[in-house]
Structures are given as structure tokens and as C-alpha cells.
Amino acid sequence: MDLKERLSELKKDALAEITNVDDLKKINDIRVKLLGKKGPITEVLRGMRDVPADQRPRIGSFANTVRDELTRALAARKEKLEIIKTAKKLEKEKIDVTLPGVAVKVGQPHIIEQVIAQIEKLFLGMGYQIVDGPEIEEDHYNFEMMNLPKDHPARDMQDTFYITDQILMRTQTSPVQARTMEKHDFTKGPLKMISPGKVYRRDTDDATHSHQFHQVEGLVIDKHVTMADLKGTLQTLARTIFGEKREIRLRPSYFPFTEPSVEVDVSCFKCDGQGCAVCKQTGWIEVLGAGMVHPNVLKMAGIDADVYGGFAFGLGPDRFAMLKYGVDDIREFYLNDVRFLQQFSQKG
Amino acid sequence: MKVSTKWLSDYITLEIAPQELAEKIERTAVEVDEVTRMSTGLKKIVVGFTKEVTQHPESDHLHLCQVDVGEAEPLQIICGAPNITAGKKVIVALPNSRIAGNVKIKRGKLRGELSEGMICSLQEIGFAEGVVPKEFAEGIYFLPDDAHVGEPVFDYLGMNEDVIDLDVTPNRADMLSMRGTAYELAAIYNKKLTLHHPAPMTENPAEVSAYIKPTAAPELASTYLMRVIKDVTVKPSPQWLQTRLWNAGIRPTNNLVDVTNYILLDYGQPLHAFDQDKLVGKNIQVRLAKPGEKLITLDEQERELRTTDIVIADEAGPVALAGTMGGLRTAVGPNTTTVVLESAVFDSSAIRKTARRHNLHSEASMRFERGINRATVAEALDAAAQLIAQLGDGTVVGGRAVATKEEVNSVSVAISLKKINDVLGTKLSMETVKDIFTRLDFTVSVSAAGQFEVQIPPHRWDISIPADLIEEVARIYGYDNLPATLPKGELTPGHYTYKQSVLRAARRLLEEAGLTQAISYGLTTHEKAAQFMMEASEETKLAFPMSSDRTTVRMNLISGLLDDIAYNTARKVNNVALYEQGRVFYRSAGNVRPREVEHLAGAMTGLFRNDTWYGAKQPVDFYLLKGIVEHLLNSLGVKDVQFKTATGHEEMHPGRTADIYAADKFLGFLGEVHPNICKEYALKATYVFELDLQQIIELPKKQAVYTPVSRYPEITRDVALAVDQEVENAAIVDFINAKSGKYLVNVELFDVYEGAHIAPGKKSLAYKLTYQDENTTLSDEVVTADFEKVMTKVKSEFNAEIR
């Protein structure tokens, strides 16, 4: 057998060995064994001395080819074994992806706060300011400035927690409007405000009454504010809270601080006005009261009622939340049962 | 106000379905509570005639009645009513009929005897207890003798009339009468009214003075009129009158009382009838009560009068609380023959005070408070007198006795078309507006300048200013017809104030930290209001609380949160983390009104995290809550926060409470609730904090400024110090920070050990000190030198041992 044949034979055997190896650690051993200084190729090449000089380049070149081929085969085998090894390792690492994730512990804003925030966002966007005021008020601001003198029959409509003859738990957030109107500088632009907050009534708590609840009252005073503007504003409000398809309707009503005064109904969001239990088969749900600011209210606040006018409205976030989320007992809002509070976690 | 459409048809022809009419009223005038027809749901209830009534053989209170119901044979019906008697027209529910409450009546046997139906009381066919005439309250009802046997009873009893129940707002007292409502409907539907008026009375006006001589102060009664009707027989009213009353929700009594109520409903004019024979003397005085005077009113209550009460007095003293309730002594009764009838206008605010103080809110007082039609005081009196005379077979004594009588004119209000359109946002024409005013029975003239001069008749006394006219135009024109626009005008920025954004940011931060927002009651008990207080304050109490649970305004938020937690744990919800942001009310002595301060409080109990397959449970503890408070204060930009061992919080655990300061300003406290308080609230270990948000809002804030991140490596040194138990971590950290060189950038406590491997009374605190230079790589030598220098000082300062 000449050298070339021996190299060919060697290559055949070596390739078979490489193909059969399945242990990554043995790859290196094989490499050393085949290609190292004591390996068979080196051994074969030692016999070059006996090869005629003219044939040496051919044999030498062939030997290099064999060496390269084996090197490549080793590398390929090594890569393959590594892939297999990784795959085996990853297979062992398999987990049950259906196990529950690690819970993110977060709290929730109160549902009433969420309703108020939604209203605030709408009115901030329309250029209203948000004004806070005292919960313990003077009779003067809570009633008298609202065109409700002491012996006014409409005072029966609101039962009041008095602290003294003159001091009371506010029954509405309108005193905030009275205080703001008194201070507002109309040379700096119109007055556009909402006043959210807690109010109190002398009521016995039951499913539909609470001695404490919330109000958001709104007020716009400018030179040219119309009842049509009121209607448009309330329509926007109703659609923001109860959905884009809602319509509103106004009905005559009575509040001492507005004239004309209206109750505002929104088309039922449960049945789209077809009639259901929520709207008591009428297709409409009463949601708020509103009107054009009574000239007496303007005059008492020192505003020229011949030049300025405006609208006011008042709504109950508690009632809104009850309607919107189907809460049937107002006391739920103030008992703070965690199982109740955490139901309203949807954002956006 | 219950309005029968049949009664209305005396005045106006509408021919509109009652539901539709109600809807229109609701959209144009006042709310409608309901529309009812009493016969709805009832069937086969007919007039019967009791031919024969005999005792039931097996019962001492039941009777066998042979009742003619217009069929060939009479029906045998068993009746237990005490007033059953033969020869009467009665209400019979035939077999398979339906009576009130959807009850079906069947043929049946009662103690062995056949009963083919039921003889009914008014209540059994749906009448409210309060409208059934007293004589029939305990038994069956007798129909008029001329009722036709076999016919349905409904028409005889007015049960086929549609009744619209109006919820009249205080401003529309003009609609508290049939005539007022008729005016309103005439305007809404643009119809003509046909009001009936009493016949003119030809009489000798002087006659009445032989009976009575009333006098009145005009400021108490601007009009005070009386008439006398003599030779009256008191008896039940005719059916038509009784029907009108009960359909209006008023119980028929007798012809005298019924006429006064009828006129009250018809005209809205309250009347009062006195028995002439019981009045002492002829002089009737309308005056204020005198000190010490008393009056026994019709309800047999003795009432102590005040000098602000208007009374009607005869020569022996008060006989009525004016406009509110009559007195018992002069009340008309079955034997009255001479009636003195009063028709007046009393001062509304005086009536209101009297009604409130005596808790006597009557149909009369309500109308006097809200106002009445001053143009028909005399007409109502005349109508009543004539009707009493007619129904009681008596005679009206000639003449009205007049104590006072004000002149009543229409009121003139001017308004321009432009103003109306400016306020409503409409483009109504002169003609449209003029037509609306005319429909409302207003007289309109238009000035050369285009100004409306509107004459308002006395029956619309609620209208006195231009805004009132605008409302009339708006509602008659129809709110549905108004356009919907948004305010134009100058633009204004809409944004939260700094305070408002801090309040809201604080809420969101606590929610992110795992606490859910609670809203508790601002009113609480006297005890709870004053717990967990952060500053001394007087309590602020309600003058007339509704319950002992809600008497005092809160001066802390924690007690409300503890109530909330107790509510949850009582329902087996044991892991609770709540916060509240709201006001507390501090009052200094001498002030009536408290200061309202925005506070923020949190309360946690049980586990913060449950055991899961993934990790062990995490119980709530001091340090968990402290971490949350630290995060909160840091996120709000509060500088130099310090937690100091706190004393003096009565409701807190004395060894587990920290006061929180920022640069010497007291912000609040944090810690474990005292076990005794937990017991009172029925709570397990609970951790709480409360902060004064107003204080935090006012503090100067950290402003984030960019500092370059050092590119050079940090070097750290760890050290464990054995110190006495009493030594506080904060003292060591502060000391190390103060005594180290400029390269020390952080000191972090990473372990605390107390136990077997350390001497009793000692604890081990392990710190990691981090050093870094912004400009170069620090050498070990520099760090070691600084570290050792500081540790030497720590050892002597704290008597510490380095472990």
C-alpha cells in the first residue's frame, strides 16, 4: 500500500470514528489522537522520505486535504453534539407555564374617586378649574347665598346637620361656587369651575340614602353663556360617563339658585332607551339637576346680573357609580369591604 | 297633588290619553309620580242588593245574605262584616272576580254553607285606609240607593277616573289646585278654559255683623274674610263630592268638612270652619299668641303657643292656629247648625315657623307657606258658603265679614326678545314668544323698543322677574327644541392646583404600594373622633345628631380605617390594606368652625402576601408599612425625613411607634396599634400611619438635578457591630455619615442579629459602606484608612465591638 492509499484508508476509519462519537468530551481526544504529533497522519507523513521526490508534493497536498477534512468533520461533529447537549439541557428545564404568575400587589382607587376623576378630566380639558371648599360651612354660603333665605320653603328639601344656628355640615358643594364667585376677577376671563367633594344630609342610612355622599357641581359665568351651552355641556358629560350613544333630555324642575331649573335625564345605557328595569321602563334615567344661575345668586356674589350670566349643574358621583356599575346599595361605598372595592380595577 | 282628569274636564277639554298627558306635564311643568285608575286589574265587581240577611247557623258573626246581582236568582254570599244589613246596595265581587292585590274570588263553602262571591269593603277593592269614610272603615260600604243592581260599581265610586299624581315643586304652588292645574294645561295645549264661578250673591251685607266681627293686623293676615251659614244640617256629602275627595286622597267626613276640602283642592284656598255656637263672643281677632297661651288643636294635642304663632282668637282665647290647624273647642261636629267660615291669606313665613315648630304640616299650611292665589280668596269663600248652604239645607247669612282685604293686581315684568334669546341660545321670533305668553294667560304689549311688557295675573304669583319669564318661554317652547352647544368665550387653562395634584399623587402612590382607597364617614362617635390625634383640638359636634354613631366630626382618619378593617375581618377577610385621604377637623377653643386639614392615613392587618406555591407569606409589620411611608415621602419630594421613637400616642404600641419628621416639622406617625385598642375594635395586630398632607404640601421640595454617574468603580467594606440593644440604627448611620471622608457614598444596613451567638443585651448590626470617587479610581489604601478611622470612632462612640 502506498502512502496515498494508507491516507485514504486512515481518513475512512477516522471519519467513521468521528461520526460515531456522541460524547462532547471525546471529540478533543479524537482530535489529538488523529491530528496530534503522535497521530497516524504524522506517522504516515514520516514515510515521505521513501517517496520519490517528484511524487512528494502530490502526497503532501493530499495529506493536507485529509487533515483539513478531518478537522472540519471534528468541528461539525462538535457543533452537532453541542446542539444536542443544549437541547437536552433545555428539555430538562421545562416548566409548567400554567402555574400562576407572581401576583403584583396593588391597591385600587375607590370607585367614587374614579367617577370624580373621570369628570375632572373632562372638565379640565374644557378649561374648567377644580375648586375645593370647606365641608363645615356657614349657613350664609350653603343656603343664603344660594337664594335660600332662612324661612324658604325649599329648605325642607334638604335636611341639614347643624352644628350651631349658623354653622352646618354642607348639604351641597354649591357654597364653594358662592365663595369662588365672590372672589373671581372677571377681567381675567370667565369663571368656569367644578367643585367635587363630600356633602352631608340629615338622613337615615338605607339602600338609597346616605347621610354622607358626594357631589360635583359645575358653574360657568361669562357675558354670553346660554342654556344651549348648558345642554351641550351636559350632553358631553353624559356621553363621557355613560357612553357615546347617550342622549339627554331636560325637564322643568326647581332649585332656588337657578332659573330656569331643569332635571336632566340620560337615555338608558342598559337598554338603549327601549325600557328595562334600570330605567323603570321609561327609557330614561334621571341623573342630575341644572339651570341658569338665578340673578339673585349673581347679585349676592357682587356680579352684575345684567352683564353676566351663566349655568350651573350638580350631580352625585355616588348615584353615577350606582347606575354605571349596578351597585344597589349606597352604603357599600362607605363600608369599604375590600371585596367590593377591588372589583373596580379596570384602567383606561 | 292628585289630579283627576274627570274633574279637570269640568274646566278644559283635552281628550288626551292620561299617560300621554302625564308625560307632557312632566316635560313641561312638574314631575308626575304616577298615573292610576283604581279599576285597573279589578273585574266582575258589581252592585248588589241585600234582599235578606240571616245568621249563619254555624257562626255567631257570619251572615248568610241573599244578594240580588241582577240575575234570575239571588246569590247566597256569606259576609262577616259587622254592618251588614238587609235592604242595602253593596259592592259584590262575583265568583271568579278579581279584587285588590290581584286576589281572585271563587265560589266556596264557609262552615258548610255555600258562598257565591264576596261583599266588599272599600279597602278590599283597593281604597287606601286613609280615604275610607270613618263610618265604613270597619265594615262593608253601602252604595247610593239608586245604584243599579248588576252594574259594575266602578263608575259609582269614581274608580274609572284617571288620576295623575303631580309632584309639585315649591315654586309651582299654583299647581296645588285643580284650577291652577287647568290654567297650566290650557297653556301647554293652547286651549280655552271654562272656569265656573259662584253665583253673585244678592244679600244684605250688614247681616253678618250680628254674628261675627273679625279684626286682623294686615301684616299677619293681608286678607281675612268670614261668612256665616245658618240652619245647616250636618250629614254625609253626596257621592260626587265624596268621590272627588277620595280620588284626591282625602277622606270624606261630612258636608261641612268636605266642602272646605273640596274648595281647598279646587281653588287651592285653605278654609276653616268654626261652630258659631261654640265661639265666645262676636269678636274674632287675628293676632299673635300671648305669652303662656295654650290651644288644644283638632288632633286633641295641647299646644303651648309662642308669641310668634299667629292665632285666631275669640273673646275667650285662641280657637285656631292660623293656617295650620283649628282648635278643638270650636270645631264643627254633627250637631253644628251655624258655621263660621274663614278664608284668608296669612303671612307665609310665620305659618312656616309655626308648622315647623309644632310639626303640623297640613295641606293648608303647605299652601300658605308656598303662596296662594290672592285673587280668589273671596270667590273661594263664596263658593264654599253656597255649597255648604246647598248641601246642608242652610242659608248663607248676608254679607262677608271683612277684617282685612288687600287689593290684588297683576304684576308687570318687562323683558326684551334679545335677552330671552341670549339666555336660551335660541332665535325665537317676537310672535313665538308673544304666543307663549298669551297661552299662559299673560297680557303682553310690545314697546316701540321691542320690549315685552308682560302682565302676570295673580294666579301665577311665582313669576316676578325676567328670569321667571325666560323659564316660562323655555318650558312651553320645549327644552327638546333648544340647540346643544358648548360655551364659547375666552379660553381658560384647566389644570389641578399644586395642592390638588399632591393629594391625587399621594393616593396613586399608596395604591401602587398595595393599599386600596377607602372612603369612611366623616362623622363618628365622640370617642373615635378624638383617637389617634396629631394635635390638640376641641371636638366639633352636631347639634341634633341622628344616631349616637354619628355625633362628632373626625379629628383623625385612622379610627375610620379601623372601623373599615373591623368590618372586613368580621366577614373573614383577614388581610386588609387600606388607605384614606380626607379631611380632619381641628377646632381651637373659642372658634365655632374647625380648621379642615387634608390628612393621609393607612392601615394594614394580616398578611401583605399570602403563601403561594412560589413564595412564603409576608405578614404585615412595622417595617413593611415604614417602607411604604418612606417610598411615599420620597416620591413626594420630602427632604430629610426622620423617624423618631415616639412616646405619648395613647392608642399606639409604646415600643413600636415612630414619629415622622422632615427637617424638624412633625408630619405624622407610624406604628402598631395598641393591643387594647385593637381589642376595642375587635382587630388582630394592625399597623397604621397618619400624615398631615397640608404640612407636606407646604414643605420645600427636592428638585431633581442631573448629577453625572461616576465612571469609576465602587469599593465596599462590610462591618458587623455588636452594640447594646438600646442603640438605634439611625444614630450609627448618621454618625458614620458624619465622620467619614468625602468618598463615602452610601451606608446600608444589611443584617440585624440578636440571639444565641451574641452576648445577652447586645445585638449585631451589619453595614455595607460604599466608597466612590467621581474623578478617579479609588485605591484600597485610601478606603481602608478612612474606614478604619471611622470604625475606631464608632467603637468608642457606641461602645461597639467589631465582630
TrEMBL record, chain A:
SUPFAM superfamilies: Class II aaRS and biotin synthetases (SSF55681), tRNA-binding arm (SSF46589). One of its GO terms (molecular function) is ATP binding. One of its GO terms (cellular component) is cytoplasm. GO terms for biological process: phenylalanyl-tRNA aminoacylation. InterPro entries: aa-tRNA-synth_II (IPR006195), aa-tRNA-synth_II/BPL/LPL (IPR045864), Phe-tRNA-synth_IIc_asu (IPR004529), Phe-tRNA_ligase_II_N (IPR004188), Phe_tRNA_ligase_alpha1_bac (IPR022911), Phenylalanyl-tRNA_Synthase (IPR002319), tRNA-bd_arm (IPR010978). Residues 111-323 form the Aminoacyl-transfer RNA synthetases class-II family profile domain. It is found in: Cytoplasm. Pfam families: Phe_tRNA-synt_N, tRNA-synt_2d. It catalyses: tRNA(Phe) + L-phenylalanine + ATP = L-phenylalanyl-tRNA(Phe) + AMP + diphosphate + H(+). Mg(2+) binds at residue 259. Binds 2 magnesium ions per tetramer. PROSITE patterns: AA_TRNA_LIGASE_II. Transmembrane segments: none annotated. Tetramer of two alpha and two beta subunits. Belongs to the class-II aminoacyl-tRNA synthetase family. Phe-tRNA synthetase alpha subunit type 1 subfamily. This is Phenylalanine--tRNA ligase alpha subunit. It comes from Liquorilactobacillus satsumensis DSM 16230 = JCM 12392. The lineage of its organism: Bacteria, Bacillati, Bacillota, Bacilli, Lactobacillales.
UniProtKB/TrEMBL annotation, chain B:
This is Phenylalanine--tRNA ligase beta subunit. One of its GO terms (molecular function) is magnesium ion binding. Its main location: cytoplasm. PANTHER family: PHENYLALANINE--TRNA LIGASE BETA SUBUNIT, PHENYLALANYL-TRNA SYNTHETASE BETA CHAIN AND LEUCINE-RICH REPEAT-CONTAINING PROTEIN 47. Binds 2 magnesium ions per tetramer. Residues 408-484 form the B5 domain. Belongs to the phenylalanyl-tRNA synthetase beta subunit family. Type 1 subfamily. The gene is pheT.
